[in-house]
UniProtKB/TrEMBL annotation:
<protein>
    <submittedName>
        <fullName>Dabb family protein</fullName>
    </submittedName>
</protein>
<dbReference type="InterPro" id="IPR013097">
    <property type="entry name" value="Dabb"/>
</dbReference>
<dbReference type="InterPro" id="IPR044662">
    <property type="entry name" value="HS1/DABB1-like"/>
</dbReference>
<dbReference type="Pfam" id="PF07876">
    <property type="entry name" value="Dabb"/>
</dbReference>
<comment type="subunit">
    <text>Homodimer.</text>
</comment>
<feature type="domain" description="Stress-response A/B barrel">
    <location>
        <begin position="50"/>
        <end position="143"/>
    </location>
</feature>
<dbReference type="InterPro" id="IPR011008">
    <property type="entry name" value="Dimeric_a/b-barrel"/>
</dbReference>
């Protein structure tokens, strides 16, 4: 299958929903001149959100106090933003030795909010000194 155009070029336009403010060009299998423009920001119907998942592995030296300081900073994050943000977080249940120690799942209405979040001083101030490794993934969820 040869896709002539895949979205508008925004970094999150790799799915059926285009989250950019620009009109999206529908994927086509044939002549690119037959591509149709779809309405911009279609996801604002409430059909899709950007999910940011982060897993953390703590250093052996991480104390319960340091982990609690991180939890408190995460709990305070939504109050620093003028856009909706939903954050859930918690320690691993310990069911498997290979799991991460902690996870954070945050929902955003659009990529612009996510980009603002990543650069915001409150996000950057979340304590990370006791974190050994972090892995993240972002994806779209159609509700």
């Amino acid at each position: 299958m040869d896709l002539q155009q895949r979205g508008c070029g925004h970094r999150f336009c790799d799915s059926d929903w285009c989250l950019s403010r620009q009109p999206r060009i529908e994927r086509t299998l044939g002549d690119p001149s037959e591509a149709r423009h779809l309405s911009p920001r279609r996801h604002h119907t409430g059909a899709a959100v950007l999910i940011h998942c982060l897993t953390l592995k703590f250093k052996e030296s991480a104390s319960d106090i340091e982990i609690e300081e991180m939890r408190a900073a995460l709990a305070a994050l939504p109050s620093h933003f003028d856009f909706p943000i939903r954050t859930r977080y918690g320690r691993d249940l310990g069911e498997r030795a290979t799991n991460a120690d902690y996870a954070v799942v945050t929902e955003f209405e659009n990529p612009d909010d996510f980009d603002t979040y990543l650069k915001h001083p409150a996000h950057l101030a979340v304590p990370r000194d006791h974190v050994d490794t972090m892995h993240s993934v972002q994806f779209l969820f159609d509700s």
